[in-house]
Amino acid sequence: MLVKYRNSQNKVALGLLSLMPKGHELKHLQQTMLRYQQNKNWEMYFWQEEGKYIGIIGIEVQKQEFVIQHLAVLPSFRGEGVGKAIVNEIQKMYSGLKMMTTEETEAFVTSIY
């Protein structure tokens, strides 16, 4: 189930975003979090199962499309369809918009379909 990010969940979000290929630098992660907190077009959601956050997706909503900026799943849950479930749910939420990816998220999204 997708759960919208709240500022009080900053540490959890930082941990999940650090799983992204380029997400290891603290300064870069902090800048990313500021973007989600300050820009109304940038939205972040956790994937929750059995009360635990095991994945995260961050999108930028534009006029006719949304762009998957960030997508990560805890290593112990990879290969179980969690990434695909996250993307499917976000597509349902934004069904009127075309889904796009960034260079960084394209490989992950392509691999789950």
TrEMBL record:
**Name of the protein in question:** GNAT family N-acetyltransferase
Entry's PROSITE patterns? GNAT
The residues that cross the membrane are: none
Q: Name the Pfam families for this protein.
A: Acetyltransf_7
Superkingdom to which the source organism belongs = Bacteria
Every N-acetyltransferase domain range: 3-113
Which lineage do the record's taxonomy fields give for this organism?
Answer: Bacteria, Bacillati, Bacillota, Bacilli, Lactobacillales
